[in-house]
Amino acid sequence: MLPPVDRDAHVRAARRREALDALAFERDREAVLVEQLEDVLAVVEGARLDADLFAQMSPDEAQLVRTALGEDTDSEPEQEEEPEADDEAETDESAEDAEAEVEAEVVRLQAEIEGSRRAQAALERYLELVSRQPVGEAPR
Fold first, then answer.
1. What percentage of the chain's residues is helix, strand, coil (to nearest 5)?
2. Chain centroid, CA 133 distance in Å
3. Residue ranges of the chain with pLDDT lower than 70?
4. Which of 79, 85, 107, 133 has a 20 to 30 A CA-CA distance from 118?
5. What angle do CA 100, 104, 107 make, to 5 degrees?
6. Do 67 and 73 meet the contact criterion of CB atoms below 8 Å apart?
7. Angle of CA points 33, 52, 48, to nearest 5°
8. Whole-prediction pTM value?
9. 19, 126 Cβ separation under 8 angstroms
10. What CA–CA distance (Å, rounded) separates 42 from 66?
């Protein structure tokens, strides 16, 4: 005769494994979302930060950093033509649209990150509960 199978223990083990997989997925997802948020903000704020930091460095150090970061430092900055009055209004609108798009993306990414963190907290709580041995239950 075969010994009785502790069904509850097997179900708990399967659920624990599934929850651990889901938790690992959410942690990876959060890391990717944080990187995306950093990249979006770096595009918008990177030049300002670089200017502040390069001002604290020698010109040679700043040049070495620019080169290491892959910035095109050999060519002269492109001279933009002065926009005409009509073009200036369009430029302002397109700049505002681009800024609004960036802000919307930042808000979206922040919401996604927060959702991922809430899911992680719930999964961690679930794992805590599923890992507890039920009190007073006999194996089935």
1. 75, 0, 25
2. 36
3. 73-89, 135-140
4. 133
5. 140
6. yes
7. 50
8. 0.73
9. yes
10. 15
